[in-house]
Write a structure and sequence with these properties.
Helix content is 12%, strand content 42%. With 146 residues, it is mainly beta. It comes from Zestomonas carbonaria. InterPro entries: Pilotin (IPR039366). Keywords: Signal.
């Protein structure tokens, strides 16, 4: 039997054995995976509004916006927005905004609308936001859309 093919086979087996991951000893505890954060960290220069919307229907589309509005309630500037999916339960939200873009002495409101199958069904009555700082708004009720 020729030795050269046998040596080539042994060298390949040796390389394959070295390339595989080492097996842990039988008594060693299983490696612990780090916990994955549910929400990304907010950058230091940003602020946020947190809360939840009371029970938008399952399958509904929720659009939220933080707006600068004029004295007649018309939107003038968009500061932040988010789109969420309703699941029939309280829907948590987190709306990040830059406090530097928050105008002094202007009216700022949080608004939301809920639509299903392209039809507006619910809305959030405008929530006035007085300060450009992080706030928890709690559970906000939705009302029927006109």
């Amino acid at each position: 039997m020729p030795i050269r093919p046998l040596l080539a086979c042994l060298a390949a087996l040796l390389l394959a054995a070295c390339a595989s991951e080492p097996t842990p000893p039988p008594n060693a505890p299983a490696p612990v995976k780090p916990a994955i954060a549910a929400e990304p960290e907010l950058p230091a220069h940003m602020r946020e509004l947190r809360g939840s919307l009371r029970t938008p229907p399952a399958g509904s589309e929720v659009e939220m916006a933080l707006l600068v509005v004029d004295e007649r309630g018309r939107p003038q500037q968009l500061l932040a927005s988010a789109q969420l999916q309703g699941d029939g339960q309280a829907l948590p939200f987190r709306l990040a905004f830059n406090p530097d873009s928050f105008p002094a002495h202007a009216r700022v409101e949080l608004r939301a609308r809920v639509s299903q199958s392209g039809r507006l069904i619910l809305r959030l009555p405008p929530q006035r936001i007085l300060q450009a700082q992080s706030q928890t708004l709690g559970e906000l009720p939705l009302v029927n859309a006109p």
